[in-house]
Amino acid sequence: MPTKISDLLSQARRQSFIGRQREISLFRDMLLNRKPDKILYYLHGPGGQGKTTLIRHFQDLCREEGYQTLLLDGRELEAHPASVLSSLAAAAGHSPGDHSGDTIAAMADRVVLFIDSYEKLNPLDDWFRTEFLPQLPSTVVSVLCGRKAPSMGWSTDPGWKLLMEEVHLRNFSQEESEAYLKFRNIPGDHLQAIQDFTHGHPLALSLVSDILAHQVGEKSFNPEETPDMVGALLDVFLQEVPGPAHKAALEVAALVNITTESVLSEVLGVNSARELFEWLRQLSFIDQHKEGIYPHDIIREALIRDLKWRHPDYYYELYDKTRLYYIDKLNGPDIARQRKMLSSLVYLHRLHPMVKPFFDWQESGGHWIDAAVQEDWPALIDMAKRHEGEESAQTLAFWLKHPAAQAWVWRDADKQPAAFVLKINADQIEDREKLADPVVDQALEYCIRQLGLRGGEHLALFRYWIVKDTYQAVSALQSSIFLGIVQYYFTPGLAISMLACANPAFWLQMFNYAGLQHLGELDFHTGNKAFGWYMHDWRKQPVADWLEMLGKRGAGGAVEGNLRPAALQVLVLSESAFETAVNEAMKNYRQRDLLAENPLVRSNLVIRKTGGEASPIDRIEALQSIIAACLGEIERSPVDSKFHRVLYRTFINPVGSQEKVADFLNMSFSTYRRYLKTGIERITALLWKQECSLVPETPGY
Question: Which CATH number is associated with domain 368-563?
Answer without folding.
Answer: 3.40.630.30
